From TrEMBL:
Species for this entry: Halopelagius inordinatus
Transmembrane segments: 96-118, 130-154
Superkingdom of origin: Archaea
Alphabetical keyword list: Membrane, Transmembrane, Transmembrane helix
Protein name per Swiss-Prot or TrEMBL: Peptidase M48 domain-containing protein
Amino acid sequence: MQTHNQLAKWFTRLYARTINFSGVSREELYQAHGEKRTVFWIDAEDWSAAGQCTPFGTILLNENRLSEAPENVRDYVFLHEVGHTKPPALLSLASIVLRVPLVLLAGFGVPVLIGRWLGVALSFPTLGQFTTFTAVTLTTTLLITLPVIAIWWLDEGYAELFAVSKIGAMDYQRRHEEMLEHADRNLLSCAVRWLLYPNPKFVVWLAEKLDR
Ligand SMILES: [Zn+2]
């Protein structure tokens, strides 16, 4: 266990450098609502996220986004990331078995598909050829991207539910809104948030249904 922890820490420090060149700025034992974890702070201006659960099950927090955020917002981000480290068995299995290959496929395969579609579109095809090829490209792209979105959404939804279970629905909604004030709200990050994260109102509704 100790070796595993040391290895995870080592990989986290390395991984942090892929997000921000100077890597981890400090490490601390973070504690909130009965959860205690070592967190790795990085000061990454160009990174739109406030925090991330790394592939090694450790937690990165972004000083640049959170240094001026109130403590309860920082706690919320921390608890969301802790939620990612405790997924139900089925979700972690789907993440490992499906998400990694599908993300790779989406990252490399979809640009190739679009490139091929452009090639055909620019080669003066007949209307029939163009329609068929467009339909095939669109269907294949959706078949690759929709499962990625679904798994991502479930993963984020679970982390949000975990945060709700710790801080309660009312507090969750308030902190969520405050957190967005500290988030980078460019068009791309808004689109990503809309697509990959469940709406907080839905999370609260679901939490009530599940009695969390
Ligand atoms: Zn998350």
